[in-house]
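User: Show me a protein chain along with its predicted structure.
Assistant: Here is one chain, sequence first, then structure tokens.
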Amino acid sequence: MLDRLAVLDEILDAHATVLGRDFHPYRNHTYRVANFHWCLLPGTLEDLYVLSVAVAFHDLGIWTAGTFDYLEPSEALARQYLVDHDRAAHIPLVQAMIREHHRISALPAEQDRRIEMFRRADWIDVSLGTLRFDLHADDFRSTVQRFPRLGFHLRLLQFSLRHGLRHPLRPLPMLKR
């Protein structure tokens, strides 16, 4: 189980103030997504670095930009982080992982598998495990037990309702077909 990812923790700690009371729920969400992804598609240390950066930033724009239309702000944060850490070569992949993580349909087979597995991993968590794709039930249970939800899904619902009231014609701007 992935339970200590230095890059992920470093990024989240740097944003602890803006996350406020949502720090621990968001941290646990990122660790659940990272673990689901790793169970579906384990990889190299470089893959783990890319995953850590993508999962840290994938929803962070909700808090840093104060919007539920957060994919572009989240991508911008990730891009800046990678530039600042001399890892600009990873920008296209990390941005694609963030941009496509709420896509409803599967990505075309010719896309990098890491993007699709990241999408699936996030859907597994957001759906509370209703969607599991190829994730084994034991992996799901042990991950949720190790990283409890702590009200994260209720918080997403609050953000969604607030945004939906302000933008009734576009209540879930991050969803794609």
